[in-house]
Amino acid sequence: MLTKSYYTAPWSMLLLLSACFSLDAQIVNYELVNSREERFSTRGVKDIPAEVIYQFKHDAARLALRSLGDPNHQPVAIPEQLIQSYFDVLLTIYINNDVAKSIANCKVHTSSTPSTDYMKVIYERTIDWASPLRKGITTTDSRRINSLIEEHELIIESSQYFDARRDAIVIRATNPINMAAIANEFYNIEGVEQIDLGYDRNKNTDVSIQAIDKGWEVRYAVSFKEEQSIQQHYWFYEVSRSGKVTLRSEGGAPIPEYMSCY
């Protein structure tokens, strides 16, 4: 099982590294965050699978949120510039190293802590605002819930049975945000008893980034069960401030044959 690591990275170094990259920038989409337009720049995206770009953005958002400290004490929005900086590091490694492409093919990404797109809200089944949910309609009669969903571009993905007294709704974010901050708002709503932020959804892989004097050290890790014990394989990269990528080391337990993507 992977150990969760939270690195506090200086903003100045993040932004300096992002500015130093020489890859051609393309503005590929526009998003509305907190009632203002945000541009997310994807660099060198030509011929890169859309799934990889999507996952790197979510990895970058999670790494950015980790760097800020306890997500319960952070606002809903994750600074877009900070996400961009982490994204640039991840994409630079992918573009410049064939092993990194194999790592992405193995779907080695950040663990699901902290949550940037998922939560399950467990509530009293008979609460008034859940009347539409009891009828199979994925909306509520709660002005507060509906307002939060609209404001933060959330989606009620499903409604499900939880136990003899309670039901649950799964809420997803259309763009990466700090779901712990959203959960804090939901806890103030009558009838909400528990919130699961999905930290157990992915414990088998993780990515961490730490600032060093030369630029960044990036660690990818994958865990798997072998002979009744949890084994781990890892890769250490170094990314210079100019964007030079070096695979410093690879080690740990051999990746099993069934993980044929590598």
How many angstroms separate the termini? 20 Å
Strand order, main sheet: write it out.
4-5-3-6
What would you call the shape? elongated
Mean pLDDT: 85
- CA radius of gyration: 20 Å
Structural class: alpha+beta
List the domain count as a whole number. 2
**Count of runs of 4 or more consecutive helical residues:** 7
Q: Tell me the fraction of residues in β-strands, as a range.
A: 25-35%
Q: Unreliable segments (pLDDT under 50, ≥5 consecutive)?
A: 1-39
Helix content: 25-40%
Largest sheet: 4 strands, antiparallel
Order of helices and strands: HEEHHHEHHEEHEEEEE
Overall strand count:
10
Q: What does it look like?
A:
By secondary structure, the protein is α+β, with helices and mostly antiparallel strands. It has two domains: 11-111 and 204-252, no CATH class; 118-196, Alpha-Beta Plaits (2-Layer Sandwich). Helices cover 28% and strands 32% of the residues. The protein is elongated. The two termini are 20 Å apart. Residues 1-39 have low confidence and may be disordered.
Explain briefly what this protein structure is:
This protein is an alpha+beta fold. The chain has helices at 11-20, 50-67, 80-96, 98-105, 131-134, 143-151, 179-186, and strands spanning 25-33, 36-43, 118-124, 154-161, 166-173, 192-196, 205-212, 215-226, 229-240, 245-252.
